[in-house]
Amino acid sequence: MLNQQTLNRPASFSGIGLHSGNRVNMTILPAPANSGVRFRRVDLDGKPEIEARVENVSETNRSTTLAKGNVKIHTVEHVLAALAGYEIDNAIVELDANEPPIADGSSREFCKIITAAGIVPQGEKREHFTPTEPIEVRHGETVMTLFPDENFKITCTSADKQGRFTQFYSTEITPKTWEKELAHARTFCFYEEIEFLFKNGLIKGGSLENAVVIRDDAVLTTEPLRYREEFVRHKMLDIVGDLSLLGKPIRGHIVAVRPGHAANAELVKKIVGQINQPIRAQQTFAPPPAKDAPAPPPTAEGAMDIVELMKFLPHRPPFLLVDKIVKIDGMKIVGIKNVTMNEPYFLGHFPGQPIMPGVLQLEAIAQVSGVLLLKIVKAANQLAYFMAADNVKWRRPVVPGDVLVIECELTKARGKIGKAKAVCKVDGEIVSEAEVTFMLRDA
Asked: Is the pTM of this model over 0.90?
């Protein structure tokens, strides 16, 4: 199918959530072309939505969790796999709880309601991603590699640390093979993991009705295994769901050894980085503008060049750590910092191996977040003072030549106090993140 697709009519299913144990009603709705897949929490005020994109992944412990501000959706991978397996590009998944129903631990029930609702083509063309070169992720004992290919294929090996039930399977993924070869594979866990999962508030809705339990060499289940290689096929089901967080179908061959949700998400982030490479190269090698050429117009609503930016920020070089604002969209803002060898701190941090200090990435987050608060409250003659930082994480070094993309979302703006959740990215990969608090004061 060359065109995008959506559902012909709404499709509904009710059950309990695997980890929360809560009763949940789910309805998958048709959506316009180019809108992608979104989750909508109808049980919360304003019915907030979270796009099914990798930048919204917040947790990957035993399942994939999406978050936006304080809103979360847990265990999204089985629903996403059903949509991606049938090549559905656009849909809204409405939920009245914080995770979809687990059903029988596979995607089988979701496939039933989708096929009953029907799938219809849309007018817009579907855009695929094909890697230009192999992409590899190593995460603990997990190795995942994506090779260029004309079709979408997965080759997978699954095993636990003791090597029990080591399984291998390989297949091309089409709507027909998805439904026949992967969709019915149920989630599974090892008996010795159950106590740990319960103590950590997980699998409250788990039972042999929706999971297979492995105890020593025995398999505990209410029915015979659906496939001889059911465990590795479920791992492949998870890969299909997690990789749909790219937002476009993949033409490539994935070879995975001991995959998991964390590595799946990391692979998507590396794919995003490869997608952004041509854009970055084009910007790097573009000729400089003519001397008398007019400044280009802002590229998006709320965009600000450095001259406009300095009207909002009191900081000046060398402590002005944002070069421009790309866009402001509601409670979100995106800023850019071009990291060059000319930065004065590289003289001492570190000679021979220049690395941008993590605290300066945190300062860049604070500056961009402050601009957003000042724009939202329309505060004249005010400055945003950095007050606190929580949940700060630095994931990898930032070096000369990197383009630091600072994405901030305002989660609280009450009076003169603002709070924001932010990430810094390079080539689509998160390099640092933090939650910051700041206060407006008279200039």
From this structure: no
